Each structure stands twice: as structure tokens, then as C-alpha cells.
Amino acid sequence: MSMNRRDFLKVSTSASGGLMLALNLPGCASVQTGYEEETGEWKANAWLELTTEGDVTFTLDRVEMGQGTYTGLTTLIAEELDVRPETIQVRFAPVAPEYRNPLIGLQLTGGSTSMAAGWQPLREAGASARWMLVMAAARVWRVEPAECSTQDGYVKHPNGLDSMPYLKLVELANREVIRGDVPLKPRAQWKYIGQQVGSRLDAEAKSTGTAVYGIDVELPGMVYAAMTRSPRYGGKALRFNRDRIRAMPGVVDAFVTERGVAVVADRYWRARKAQAALDVEWDFTDAIALSNEDVFEHYRRATNDDPGENERVEGDVEGVTANAEVLVEAEYEQPYLAHAAMEPMNATAWYRKDMMEVWAPTQAPDLGRIAAARHTDLSPDQVTVHTTFLGGGFGRRLTQDFVEEAALVAYQVKVPVKLIWSREEDTRHGFFRPAMLHRMTGSLSGGQLTGWDHQIAGPQVLDWYVRNAAPAQYPWAPKFLYSTLGRVGLLVEGIATPKDISAIEGAVGYPYNVPNIRVRHTHTDPGVPITWWRSVGYSHNGFAVETFMDELADKAGEDPLDFRLRMLAEEPRHRRVLERAAELADWRQPPPEGRARGVALFKSFGTYVAQVVEAGIEHGEIRVYKVVCSVDCGQVVNPAIVEDQMTGGILFGLSAALYGDITFDNGEVRQSNFHDYRILQMHQTPEMVVDIINSEESPTGVGEPGVPPVIPALGNALFALTGRRQRKLPLKA
After folding, report:
1. What is the pLDDT confidence band of residue 23, given thresholds at 50, 70 and 90?
2. Name one Pfam family in it (predicted).
């Protein structure tokens, strides 16, 4: 590998005199280079460092929120470097341009892209470092490098007896120049990739309480803040009983903010006690005042008035619809959903003259820097964001409102302050998965599906996300331009910026062989704040597409599995997971009495997943007994993490299918905590079987693809059991 391949690797000497390799990790599996042609500058977004003390450190530019990046990406380096994964120290990357996802120009973790992006460059980095160490040892021994080998951090002499540890070679190694490509290990020699070796690298820290989450941050002289927000989104606080609140024990300050009223105290529960005593007068002039019924009526009017933008058109849908022997029409409603992460939103901020530090469990630290700078006299480059472990992300922590609030309070009080949202605040004042409406029309002739028409109505996430995303791409811009940058970002969406596919993803990728297809989106927004939610658009499109496929199979008088398989002749990976899931679930055999099975298939984030759900009704409630999941995510790096993410996605999806529903009444959210925004409990957990397809394709995402199929599979099982089709979530017994 000659140095003109610097789009992937650059070698230098670290501060310790050791070996440092800088590498570029492409985002969203899009190969980008770190080399700027105009300036000649080479930008990396990950670092591998070997020191003379024997330390191996990997700077991780993705956050760890339980999805396994901490272990999975480190395993890639360990394999090629030939060291045990647990010997590599992992540190979270600071905010810097070098760490941005080059596809979208932002430093964030999402879209189940981390493994796909790191698969090739991280292995190349490990292999290059190992080869430079081998070259250094060979030079000392005066032998040919190709005659040497490595094992667990040692270079071994050709005689099979002598060896040298890497730590003795790192200073010499950084002088070596590799010419030509360094071959990666053949699969037959892999010791860690694809193997169930050891536990997750973060397991011990999380089990012993030494892993630092955002809510764990403690600083000298720190105070605590609670924020009371408008009960209706868009409301403003006019005044409150400030004198009484400030006179309460431990209260440091209380003041009106853009979002409501902040109370600051020397102890968390004192802040909460003072918050409970607040008497706030609200101005609801610009606040929303809708109900869920209003939202869906809004969508229906929009679909009637606007046929939507065509996102995929093949054949003549209108023609086959007019001449169909059987025309099947259905409408599906899906409500707003909260994320319900176990760690509620929180952030710690410390303002000092000319700088601010923020400690936050954020999925997008560079957007956090923009959020922190908004209400201060600081520019973004004067804000340092320290990323912690995340107690669940699910897309919620991509939106930085919690960081913005903490920074605003810290700027006011001028001491370190930790802002913690209560569970009730997290449920009522979060950013939600959007409610969506789907109108479906299917044409059947001679038992064949001849036409498919899918109209989607609802908002796009980017409309709400661009507020901080656009300024983060231009951190040098003055703050008075932030709003303008956001508006421009929306205007050039799909032209100068990536197209927002959050409403249509999964729908346009319809895999079944149907000669006439039309998928369209009616873009309409009722004004409820939204953000990304685990599996994003695939979650609602999966329910609509796979439930409607079952309805069509029923009208065609065909088994739902056979109906799908017949239209997947040219989709071998879809067929394989579907057949495998059906086989493991004993689809061809009748289920136990009082139970029924449903099947669904969906590809998301490049990963193919088929699931069969076996369910029944007990004591008037839906009971899920078993879920069989077959997944093809390409080459598996760590089978245990894939299984964890599939089962986690299944439970996440079942919670949404059975209980997920954020409802509005005159603009106020009715739900407040886990008693009325329920998640699946341990005693309700079904038996889960995860089958991982053996594949040599490049790896794809696993954090989210387990969610979309389980919701329609459960609904389809309930139809098989009761004969009653459900087109609205959550499902009812």
C-alpha cells in the first residue's frame, strides 16, 4: 500500500513515540475519501494508536447506545492486527470535522450504518499496522517479512522460537513504508470475526456501574435543573410565582426560558420539589390544539386534495385497477410513538468565559454543539461536547433539545448544571415517531396480483431535524443565519442535500414481482414535533405493506407464505430468510389449539428479515408465545450481538404493536409514564428463535431491522386466529 492511497490510511508518529494510523470511515456504506483535492488536506475520522507501553487505542467515532459498536468495530481491528479484542482500549471521539459522516456532513450515529461503514477500512487499518510491525521485526532479524508471522500481539521469527512484542517495535514500525496492497486475512484464518468469542467489551463496565452514562456525570460545585415545559407544544410561559419558588430551600434560581420555566437547585429533588410548586401562566396563542382524530382527518383531506409525489412508478396501475377481477382497498393508521429509552433525556453543561463544556448521551455530538451555542455568546467551536454511554437511543437522541436546554440554563447560572428530564417529561414533551396514514389498492386477476398502489400521507423528519443539522454543516456561520440555513436546507433537499426518505423507505423497495406498481407520498404536517424512531419509515411501511400482502393472499384464496414466495422468484435472499423462518416455525403444521401464526418479510438498512409470530388471546389480552426470526445481514462479525439486536428489535416492535400510542387531547399528550405508555414486561416475553443466514456478503445493519416485520406478523396471526383484520395500531384483542 503506497501512501498515495491516503483516502483510507495515513501513518504518523504519535505523541508517545508510537505508531498512529488515521483512517477514513465512509458513511452509510458510501465510499468517500478523506482527501480534499482543492486544499490537499487529508482528513481522517478514526484513529488507531499503538504505544511503546503496549497500549492499543481505538478512537471510536460512533456512539455506544447498546447496539454493539464498541465491540463490533473493535473486533474488526483486532482480527487484522492479531490482538485479542479485549486488549484494545476504546475512547469516544470528540466533536471535530474529521469525525463527520462524509455522506451527510454530520457527526452522528444512526441508520444502522456503523458496521457497513467500518467493515473494509478498519480491517485495512489493522492489517496495515500489523504488516508495518512485521516489517520492523524483519529488519531487526534480517529476514524476509513474508517469513514472519504474528500471534496475540507478538511478531514471531521464522524459526518458530523467537518473538518480539508489538510494544518493542512501534517506534521502528512508523518508519516503514508499505508498497503495494496489504492482503487481509482469509476467512479460514479468522479468530474473532464471525465467532462467538468472549463477552461484549463494554459488559464489565456496564455490569459494575463504572460505565459513565450522561446521567452519571458529576462535577465539582454542580447544581441541578428541572424544566417545566408548555403542556401544549408551541405555548410560551408569560410569568410564574418566582418569589415563592426562589425562597424555597436550596433553590439557586428560577426563570422563564424559550421552552418554559427553569428551576435550579443545589439538589435534584429540591429542584423537583420547587418545580411542583410552580404556578405558571401560559400563552397558547401559537400552540397546537389538536387531537389524534384531527391528525388523521387532516391526512385524509390531504390525500383527497393531493395525490402525492410519485416515488416509484412501473407499468399502468390505473389501467389494471380499472380492469381488475378483484379490487382490494385498505387504509392503515399508525399513531405517534414515544421512544421510552430507559435513561431519560439529560445533559450537563458548564459555562465559563469564552467556552462551554457539555457532557451528554447524544447520538449527534456536533449538532449538540450547535444546540449549546444557540442561546449563549459562544460560537460552536467554543463548545466542547463529551459523549457518554447512552442508556438507549432509538433515534430520540439525534434531536438535541435536551442539550440546548442544559446549555441555556448553564449560561444563566454560570456554574456546572445537570438537567434531567423526569419520565413524565420524557413521555409528554419528547419528539415522536410520526403518525402516518396509508391508502392501499391491490388488483387481482386470475389469482395473480397485477397492480399495487400505495399512497402514504404524513410528514418528513428532516423538516424538524434541519433546525440544528443545517448549521452543523456550516459551523463557521454566524448564529443569526441559523434559521436561514435551516430554510435553505429544506429548499435544496434532494438537490444539494440528501433526499429525505423517512416517509417512504421500505415502500419504494417493494420486492414482490408485480408488473404494475405505484408508490407516492402526500407530504403533510399537522405540527406535532417528530424525529427518528427505531427503523424510522420502515416501521410504518412494514406494517402497511405486509398486512396488505396478507389481505391480498386471503382474497386470492392462497396461503400467505406461498402467495409471497410465488412473487419472489428473482429475490433469492428474500426467499431464503422467508423459507427458513417458515421451516423453523413449523408453518406447514397446525399450531396448538387456541393459537395462530402470522408471517411477514421486510428488508431494511440492507438487511433481510423474515419473522413468524405465534399468538393467541388469554383472559381478553393478546399473548405472543413465540417469534421465529431469520436474518441475512451479510457477513456476521459477532453472532451474539446480531441475536441481541434481533431479539431487542422484536421486543421493541411488540411493545409498539400492543401498547404504543401517544394520543393528543386539545394539544396535550395524555400519556405520562410506563403505566399508560406500556412496554412489554419480562413475564410477557415470548420464546424467540433467531436464525442467522451464513453469508459472505458485506455486513449490513442489525440495530433496527428486527422491528418492522414483527408488527404485521402479529397482526396477521391475529387475523388467522379471529378472522378479524386490524388496520389500526395498537392491535386489540
Report:
1. low
2. MoCoBD_2
Rounded-to-integer distance, Cα 415 and Cα 417, Å: 6
pLDDT digits (tens, 9 = 90+) for 319-364: 999 999 999 999 999 999 999 999 999 999 999 989 999 999 999 9
Whether the per-residue pLDDT at 40 is higher than 60: the answer is no
Task: List, for residues 94-109, the tens digit of each pLDDT value.
Answer: 887 777 765 567 888 8
Adjacency order of strands within the sheet including 223-229? 251-256, 260-265, 223-229, 417-420, 346-352, 355-360, 383-387
Query: How many angstroms separate the CA atoms of 95 and 382, rounded?
Result: 11
- Exposed, middle or buried: residue 601 (CB in 10 Å: 0-12, 13-18, 19+)? buried
CA distances to 98, 145, 146, 157, 568 from 142, in Å: 39, 9, 12, 10, 59
* pTM > 0.85: yes or no: yes
Structure-block grid coordinates of residue 180: 503495494
Residue identified by cell 389480552 is 621
At 17, the pLDDT band (50, 70, 90 cuts) reads low
Question: What distance in Å separates the CA atoms of residue 551 and residue 600, rounded to the nearest whole number?
Answer: 12
Round to whole Å and give the CA distance between 515 and 500.
Answer: 27
C-alpha to C-alpha distance for 633 and 629, rounded to whole angstroms: 12
Phi, psi of 189 (to 5 degrees): -100, 0
Residue ranges in 267-342 assigned as alpha helix (H): 268-276, 292-305, 317-322
DSSP strand pairing (621-632 vs 664-665):
unpaired
pLDDT value, residue 639: 94
Determine whether 231 is exposed, middle or buried from the number of CB atoms within 10 Å of its CB (0-12, 13-18, 19+).
middle
Domains and CATH numbers, the chain: 9-195 (3.30.365.10), 214-285+345-420 (3.30.365.10), 293-336+434-461+500-722 (3.30.365.10)
Give yes or no for residue 306 having a pLDDT over 70.
yes
Distance from C-alpha of 608 to C-alpha of 631, rounded to nearest angstrom: 6
